[in-house]
Structures are given as structure tokens and as C-alpha cells.
Amino acid sequence: MNSDERERQARQRFMILNLIRFSGVGIVMLGVASVAGKFLPELGPEFGTLLMLIGMVEFFFLPIIVKKGWRKKDSGQG
Known about the structure:
Elements: H1 3-35, H2 44-60, H3 62-74
């Protein structure tokens, strides 16, 4: 893999990690809106709390898991 390909791959991975984080923030915001009764109020605040937890896990832990998968693949183990 030459330097141009490595740079392209790094840019793609950077964008993917940021999209994961932004979607996590979006899910947290939907959870906050749900708890406040502005988004799907018929499902109750428990649904909003669940959305917030899912969004936090996606924001904090999913990028780490994806990065470990890429590292494993790059080292030839995956």
C-alpha cells in the first residue's frame, strides 16, 4: 500500500469514526427529546432513557471497537 492509498484509507476511517460519533450524539438528543415529551411521547420517558444510553454507548465505545477491528485486520489477523 503506497502513501496515497494509506492517506485515503486514513481519511475514510476518520470520516467513519466521526459519523459514528455524530450519530451517537443524535440518538442522545432524540432520547432527551423523548424524555421531555417532544419526541414519541406515547412511549414514555423510559424509551428516551434507553435511547440516551444507546447513544452514549455508540459515542464512547463503538469507535473503539471499530478501531480495534481495523487494527486486527491491518495486522493480518482478521
